[in-house]
Design a protein that fits this description.
The complex is a heterodimer of chains A (about 325) and B (about 400).
Chain A (H helix, E strand, L loop, with lengths): L1 E3 L1 H15 L3 E5 L15 H5 L4 E3 L4 H13 L3 E5 L10 H8 L2 H4 L9 E6 L14 H5 L5 E3 L4 H13 L4 E6 L8 E3 L12 E4 L4 E5 L3 H13 L5 E5 L2 E3 L3 H11 L2 E8 L4 H13 L8 E5 L7 H7 L3 H13 L2
Parallel strand pairs in A: 2-3, 2-4, 4-5, 5-7, 6-7, 10-11, 10-13, 13-14
Antiparallel strand pairs in A: 1-8, 6-12, 9-11
Helix pairs in contact in A: 1-7, 3-4, 8-12, 9-10
Chain B lengths: L5 E3 L38 E3 L3 E2 L19 H26 L13 H10 L5 E3 L5 H7 L3 H8 L24 H14 L6 E6 L6 H13 L3 E7 L2 E2 L2 E2 H4 L8 H5 L2 E6 L3 H16 L5 E6 L18 H8 L3 H11 L5 H23 L8 H4 L10 H10 L8
Parallel strand pairs in B: 3-9, 4-5, 5-6, 6-10, 9-10
Antiparallel strand pairs in B: 1-2, 7-8
Helix pairs in contact in B: 1-2, 1-3, 1-11, 1-12, 2-3, 2-9, 4-12, 5-6
Classes of the chains: A alpha/beta (about 325), B alpha/beta (about 400).
């Protein structure tokens, strides 16, 4: 057992997949000798060769497109997009091809690929490096969207994503890459996809988050505990397909819900969760569902990003208001 | 044969090989690169290139005496002729079906049959095709059935579940995106040491996309077994070739990717198959990608949803029709004593009957059940979609529905 950061856990999962499945290969910009700009693929080209850990020319659309072609021919490509804002050129291939190749061919061809990318802000990165595009990806039929929130979940969920027979977008919270270490058993055990995890049990209010925001939610829960408010915290982990049952079970117990989302508010993934709760759990509620989100503004550059991102103070404030209602 | 090459240490830069240019190739007729001389004194420029244009059979059916013997084997030529005729018979019927409301939008390949047939004839069954929406000529030779193609254009996904070319990609509608799929497939073949080649076809409009260039560039860096064919039919819906690109040829875009690029008369099926065959053989032997620009003319509308008379001169189309591929090969075959009017009548009858059988089978195809929307979305439908599935079931028409 080893104490690993999230980015090290990603590296271990990739190494495990490369070692145990000859059809797995990695491709992306600067992932070879350089080990990726975040070092997620550090040492893997040395160990597995440049044919399976493949540096690509700088063309995201083509990276995604060749991954579709590789996957259709029986490989399991794991592509790295260097920063979340550079996913956009690859959307055409993701939406028009990767997500629908199986459906278009009635299962004759399929697309078992993973798109890995850093996600979200909080590291004072340059422009276009701190995006949270998960909602537009979750809106696309045929894609799975997974966002881990800890080293252990990154390890287990990434292995599950690579083994999944369909395309998975795996968004790694940049802020968590080196934020903390956790014991991770490098035994090749995956975690279940399509499943939300209860990260903290509580009885008064359900706090829902994913990725980097899970830690703000957990920190807010600690603050609120000292005020006598007992929060249950749910890690969404797989946004699509969404495990509504775990959410509804919790809301049935607590009767209150606050959703935390780093992305801009309108049509964000929190809106989908709120809709599911209203459609299927309205009568559990003792207070309106609240969202704490990024504002509907362009992701600010480094100096203002701290004021854009949902903070412990904003989350705690929303929970207090929720507790005051009714 | 002088294949196109980038030659180092020459003083010229970007000049077409003029001896191959024909006056009737308007896009290739004029010098196209003007160098601004910045300083006096000799220029030292590192690279020059030339793009060869290949044609064996003229529009009037005369064969170039330098044509290689293996390119004009009688059995080969008769096969190509039959395949082009079959493609055209199918194409015409598909348009008629659309006009009578029995088929959705269809993209005709009229006048471009030699391109698809030349490519299809040059590929092996284990190779993989990534077609665009105008490539049924190649697909029919690959083993896709007429029924499958009708089912597809008729609005049913089962039409892309080819029974024979199981590894071929389905028709690609987003223009240019298929080049990357073929490049990725070619990478898989190379990684596994398989002697297979990926072939993709796009149009002159597709050659303007970044997807085309970036995929070709990537394939070249990795030296994968890929052949990219541009069906330059001079029109991207209403946009003429000269408004798509300022380059004298589309083949020279290969130079910017570092691969061999060549032009061929896409209405000469003998040259078309020959060039495709050479490029595929080279790819199979580890020689890397080739870009082929096949010059043709779109004699029909872009699709059945288009009316080309809005934007082009019918007189030009009439003149271009005189160069179409089937008549010119027929003239040549007849002159060689390989083809008779009786054979022509029999072939026409066989093709018409085959097409009629396909249409009958298409029209008799029962509709998909509601569940078809869900069945192949994922390997296994997520539990969270169960309620949507049940909703669709509840509102599905009892007879299965007809769209």
């Amino acid at each position: 057992m080893a104490e690993l950061t999230l980015v090290e856990a990603v590296n271990r999962a990739l190494a495990h997949a490369l070692e145990h499945d000859p059809t797995v290969l990695l491709l992306g910009e600067d992932i070879g000798v350089n080990g990726g700009v975040f070092r997620a693929t550090l040492g893997l080209q040395q160990r597995f060769g440049s044919a399976r850990v493949l540096d690509t020319p700088l063309a995201e659309a083509a990276i995604a497109g060749v991954a579709v072609g590789m996957a259709a021919m029986g490989l399991k490509p794991v592509m790295e997009i260097q920063f979340s804002g550079f996913i956009y050129p690859a959307l055409d291939q993701l939406i028009n091809h990767a997500s629908r190749l199986r459906n278009r061919t009635r299962g004759r061809l399929s697309c078992p690929m993973v798109l890995r990318a850093p996600n979200g802000g909080g590291i004072h990165a340059p422009e276009h490096h701190s995006e949270s595009p998960e909602a537009m990806l979750a809106h696309t039929p045929g894609l799975r969207v997974v966002i881990p929130s800890s080293p252990a979940r990154a390890y287990g969920l990434l292995l599950a994503a690579i083994r999944d027979p369909d395309p998975v977008v795996f968004l790694e919270p940049t802020r968590l890459y080196r934020l903390f270490k956790q014991e991770v058993i490098d035994d090749g055990e995956s975690l279940p996809l399509d499943t939300c995890f209860v990260s903290r049990e509580g009885r008064d209010v359900t706090l829902i988050a994913w990725g980097g925001m899970l830690h703000e939610a957990l920190a807010a829960a600690e603050t609120l505990a000292s005020e006598g408010v007992d929060c249950e915290v749910i890690d969404i982990a797989t946004l699509k397909p969404l495990d509504a049952e775990t959410i509804l079970r919790s809301v049935e117990k607590t009767g209150r819900c606050v959703i935390v989302q780093e992305a801009a508010r309108t049509a964000g993934f929190g809106a989908e969760i709120a809709a599911v709760i209203v459609e299927r759990g309205l009568y559990f509620l003792q207070a309106p569902v609240r969202r704490v989100t990024g504002y509907d503004v362009v992701m600010p550059l480094a100096r203002l990003e701290g004021q854009y991102l949902p903070s412990v103070a904003r989350i705690a404030d929303a929970v207090r208001k929720t507790m005051e209602a009714a | 044969m002088n294949w196109a090459r980038a030659r180092a240490n020459q003083a010229l830069f970007g000049v077409c090989s003029k001896k191959f240019l024909r006056a009737d190739e308007k896009h290739a007729a004029a010098p196209y690169v003007t160098l601004t001389k910045l300083e006096a004194g000799p220029m030292t420029i590192g690279v020059s290139f030339q793009i060869d244009f290949l044609r064996f059979l003229s529009a009037s059916g005369e064969l170039d005496p330098a044509t290689p013997r293996e390119a004009i084997d009688p059995e080969l030529l008769l096969g190509l002729y039959r395949a082009m005729t079959r493609t055209r018979a199918y194409d015409g019927k598909a348009i008629a079906l659309q006009r009578t409301g029995k088929l959705g939008t269809f993209a005709s390949a009229l006048g471009q049959e030699a391109i698809g047939v030349g490519i299809g004839a040059a590929m092996r069954s284990e190779d993989v095709l990534a077609p665009s929406y105008r490539d049924h000529g190649a697909q029919l030779l690959r083993g896709m059935t007429m029924v499958e193609n009708l089912v597809y254009w008729g609005g049913d996904e089962r039409g892309s579940d080819y029974a024979v070319p199981r590894s071929d990609f389905p028709i690609c509608v987003p223009v240019g995106t298929q080049v990357a799929h073929a490049a990725g497939a070619a990478y898989a073949f190379k990684l596994r040491n398989e002697k297979r080649v990926a072939v993709t076809i796009l149009g002159d409009g597709g050659a303007s996309t970044g997807d085309f260039y970036s995929a070709l560039n990537m394939a070249a860096v990795w030296r994968v077994p890929l052949v990219v064919v541009i069906n330059n039919n001079q029109w991207a819906i209403s946009t003429p070739r000269e408004m798509e690109s300022a380059t004298a040829t589309l083949a020279q875009k290969a130079v910017a990717a570092g691969v061999e690029g060549r032009q061929v008369d896409g209405n000469d099926v003998i040259a078309m198959r020959h060039v495709a065959h050479a490029a595929i053989a080279k790819a199979r032997d580890g020689g890397g990608p080739t870009l082929i620009e096949a010059l043709s003319y779109r004699l029909g509308d872009h699709t059945t949803a288009d009316d080309a008379s809005r934007y082009r001169d019918v007189e030009v189309v009439r003149r271009e029709a005189e160069k179409e591929p089937i008549a010119r090969l027929r003239k040549y075959l007849a002159a060689r004593g390989l083809w008779s009017e009786e054979q022509e009548r029999r072939l026409a009858k066989d093709c018409a009957e085959e097409v009629e059988r396909a249409v009958a089978a298409y029209l008799a195809t029962p509709p998909q059940a509601f569940s078809a929307m869900f069945d192949h979305l994922f390997a296994q439908l997520p539990e969270s979609m169960r309620d949507q599935y049940e909703e669709a079931r509840r509102f599905a028409p009892e007879d299965g529905g007809h769209g």
